[in-house]
Amino acid sequence: MSSNDPRLRGSARRRSGPYPLGQFPDSVLFEIGKLIVHRLAVGHSDITGDDFGTIFANAIGGQHRARPLGIADVVLSGCAWSVKTVSSPHPFNQTRARLISGRNSPDFSLGIPDPHVNPQNTGHAVLSVWNARVNEALGEHNELRIVVMLRNMAAREFLIFEEEAVRFAPDDFNWGFNRRGNLEGHNRADGNHQFTWQPHGSQFTVLRSVPGHARRFSINRNVPIVAVESILAASRFTPDWITIH
Fold first, then answer.
1. Distance between CA atoms of residues 127 and 235, nearest Å
2. Is 141 in contact with 71 (CB distance < 8 Å)?
3. Domain count within the chain
4. For the CA atoms of 22, 28, 33, 38, what is the dihedral angle to 10 degrees?
5. Residue 90 counted as domain residue
6. Is 235 a domain residue?
7. Half-sphere exposure in the Cβ direction for 222 (13 Å, CA)
């Protein structure tokens, strides 16, 4: 704490992550790369969001919730992460990422049966649902982060970044329906497209800029697929493991 920071009674530092926000240690990147090599070696050519949740949790020594409560996918001590992975043709050069961030139903949550009547109110409702999920997660954890990995599995190139999961001020955005019938939210300050909400399916997408501190890594070998018999031998498999009823 610097001399310019006021000291408050009863205050405490909320941050509890295993490393500073967005500053992945090389050891974590190495573990993520190693676990990706393992998946390739056993014949998995791609990584789903659930796969990456398990990989990231193992890399930091955390717990991957098989059925996450709200948006907290991975937890470690007092810190929680919402985990995302996005396929990209050029991860190292990508500047924005479209992140599917759950399903928001203004009708179910706030009683708005027809989202087209007032797009601005619908947009406010969509962000209110997101903000409520952030509040819920922060009620259980000291810190909530979003970790994103852009991947090109064919080129074996990966970019990873992390940022704080924030609440959005609904009045900071203008909302309107595009030609495809999806609701878009644009930042009033700069006009940038930041949100998309789909009435059919209620899917909520957040467009995030790739920060300058994003880390990049690659797997610089072709990973051979390990034969099934080799895996069974390493597991000390014997026929009596199988009982046919």
1. 49
2. no
3. 1
4. -140
5. yes
6. yes
7. 2
In the 8-state DSSP scheme, what is residue 71? T
Beta strands in the chain (DSSP E): 63-69, 72-76, 79-87, 96-103, 143-152, 157-164, 173-177, 183-187, 193-197, 203-209, 215-218
Taken as a whole, the chain contains a residue count of 245
Task: Answer yes or no: is 8 within a domain.
Answer: no
Report if residue 10 sits inside a domain: no
Longest dimension (CA), the chain: 73
> Residue 97 sits in which domain range?
26-240
Q: Which residues 6+ apart lie within 8 Å of 196 measured at CB?
A: 98, 182, 183, 184, 185, 204, 205, 207
213 phi, psi to nearest 5 deg: -90, 10
pLDDT in tens, the chain (245 residues): 444 444 434 434 456 789 999 999 999 999 999 999 999 999 999 999 999 999 999 999 999 997 655 799 999 999 999 999 999 999 999 999 999 998 887 766 677 788 889 999 999 999 999 999 999 999 999 999 999 999 999 999 999 999 999 999 999 999 999 999 999 999 999 999 999 999 888 899 999 999 999 999 999 999 999 999 999 999 999 999 999 99
Helix (H, G, I), strand (E, B) or coil at 164: strand
Of the candidates 75, 53, 85, which has an alpha carbon nearest to the alpha carbon of residue 138? 75
